[in-house]
Amino acid sequence: MRVRVHVFLKPGVLDVQGKAVENALHGLGWSGVSDVRVGKTVEFDLAGPDPAAAEGEVRRMCETLLANTVIEGYRIEVA
Amino acid sequence: MKAAVVVFPGSNCDRDCKVAVERSTGASVHMVWHAETALPPGLDLIVLPGGFSYGDYLRCGAMAALSPVMAEVRKAAERGVAVIGICNGFQVLCESGLLPGALLRNAALKYVCKPVDLDIVRPDTRFTRAFGSRRRAVMTVGNGEGAFFADADTLTRIEAEGQVVFRYADNPNGSLGDIAGLINTGGNVLGLMPHPDRSFEAELGSADGALLFQSLLETA
User: Fold this and answer.
1) What is the pTM of this model?
2) Which residues of B touch A70 (CB under 8 A)?
3) Per-residue pLDDT tens digits for B170-188
4) CA distance, residue B36 to nearest chain A CA (Å)
5) Considering CB atoms only, which of A16, A64, A70 is closest to B109?
6) Which residues in chain B (50-69) have CB-CB distances under 8 A to chain A?
7) CATH number for the domain that contains residue A64
8) Do A14 and B59 touch (CB under 8 A)?
9) Which domain holds residue A54?
10) Which among B66, B93, B109, B176 is the top mutation candidate for probing chain A, defined by the most A β-carbons within 10 Å of its own β-carbon?
11) In CATH, what is the architecture of B2-218?
12) Inter-chain touch A14–B58, beta carbons under 8 Å
């Protein structure tokens, strides 16, 4: 199955990269843009038949390596 | 004194650290590759150097924190061996949970590389006692992701426990609490963004980094 993990800085953690992108979009005329957050997506194939078990395993991957939960949150998609 | 410098793929201050520790203290310094599963016996000091371990991929220090040698560093830290993480090494210590908090991208979106004034908040630690009555030091910073962050509760705890060792006199990167260097509650693990290894001889602009390493001679 294909796994997608989205990692973003938590609300309240200053995302200077998001801020820079927001300023650039404003500079290009998109004045309605606000609260830009830049995250990352980690995608991979995972062997095994059971999506529910996979989600638990991917959560452990997130807690161990893929996200730093001091500053980041994550969202898991299993398809 | 016997010391080790851990070398991760992408470390680039490992040899600076070796020279700095050798010249400051006369210690014999072993270079230890990150894939090692044992440290040399009888170490007084372990240095995690600056650089871009694992290319800074995923997050600075994230993969280095999980490398085989870090399990041994953790055990040594639990035994009370002095551990210093400098710059990327500080990031590795935070990622490994040996120190609280995390390092974020600099608030001003710039890589900052310059000498900075540091307030010595804790002159009584095993890493700072050689500063004597001095309360100010100069060391060079070089970082793009050096803004210390911890949530409000953690920050309160860090301050209450007296874990802040160095503060920036003029915060160059947006670190919360102007925190430049942090110690664990056990008092034997220090992380700092400024480089004592780039500030250990007058010819480098400051020799204050040597005092940090020399402080350890008393407990070696």
Assistant:
1) 0.95
2) 94, 100-102, 149-151
3) 999 999 999 999 999 999 9
4) 20
5) A16
6) 58-59, 62-63, 66
7) 3.30.1280.10
8) no
9) 2-78
10) B109
11) 3-Layer(aba) Sandwich (3.40)
12) no
User: Does the pLDDT value for residue A48 go beyond 90?
Assistant: no
Residue B53 pLDDT > 90, yes or no? yes
Domain count, chain A: 1
Nearest CB among B95, B107, B174 relative to A68 is that of B95
How buried is B190 (Cβ within 10 angstroms: 0-12 exposed, 13-18 middle, 19+ buried)? buried
Distance from CA of B126 to the nearest CA of A (A): 28
In the predicted structure, residue A69 carries a pLDDT above the cut 90? yes
According to the model, what pLDDT value does residue A49 have? 82
B-chain residues near A71 (CB < 8 A): 102, 104, 149
* Confidence band for B66, pLDDT divided at 50, 70 and 90: very high
Any idea where the domains of chain B sit in the sequence? 2-218
**Distance (Å, rounded) from C-alpha B116 to C-alpha B131?**
17
